[in-house]
Amino acid sequence: MKMAPKAFPLDKVYRLLNHGPVVLISSKVGGKTNIMPIAWQVPLEFDPPLVCLVIGEHSDTFKAVNRTKECVVNLPTAKILNQVFSCGRCHGHAVDKFKQFQLTPLPATKVKAPLIKECIASLECRVVDNKMAKTHNLFIARVVAAWVEAGIFKEFLRVDRSRAKTLHHLGGDKFMLPGKVVTARKLLSE
Ligand SMILES: Cc1cc2nc3c(=O)[nH]c(=O)nc-3n(C[C@H](O)[C@H](O)[C@H](O)COP(=O)(O)O)c2cc1C
Q: Is residue 54 in contact with ligand 1, taking CB distance under 6 Å?
C-alpha cells in the first residue's frame, strides 16, 4: 500500500529536482581564467539555443560573466569527479583552478573563455540577458559554438558508455551517475 505523503522541508526541495548534469563554467577576465561547477542550469530555447545559468553573486565567476558577458559551459564526467567538486570548494581569486586541479584550457573559437579539455562537451556562450542576475543570479546565454568528444553522441548523449558518465548532483558531496538508456513507448494511439 502506498504510504501517505509526508511534509517535505522547503529548503531541500531543490534536491528532488537537482539531477540535471553538473556543468563547469569556465570564464576569463583580465587574462585570468577560472572554473566553477554549477548544478543549476537548464535549456531554455532550441533555436537560437539558449540556456539559463544560475551563478551565485558570491562567486568570482559571477563577476567575470557579468563583466565579459561570455563563458563556456563544459560537461564533465565521473573521471574528474574530485576536480569538479574541488572547483566548487574554492574561489578563483585564491586558486588557479586549471593549475591546481590539473585541468587543461583550450582556446575557444567565438569567446575568450577557454574550453576544458577533460570535458566531453563544451558550449561557447554569450550572455544575452542579465536582467535577473541582480535579483536571482540568473543569466540567459546563447550558445554560439558547440563541441563534443567524438563517439559519445549518436542522436542522444551516450551516457551508457563508460567515458560519458555525466555527474548529477544530489547535494553536498553526493553525486549520481547515469545507468542505462531506456526507450519509452507511447500509450496513446494516433
Ligand atoms: C556540485 C556543485 C554544484 C554547484 N552548483 C552551484 C550552482 O548551481 N550555482 C551556484 O551559484 N553555485 C554552485 N556551486 C558552488 C560554486 O561552485 C562555488 O561557490 C565556487 O567555489 C565558486 O567559484 P568561483 O568563486 O571561483 O567562481 C556548486 C558547487 C558544487 C560542488
A: yes
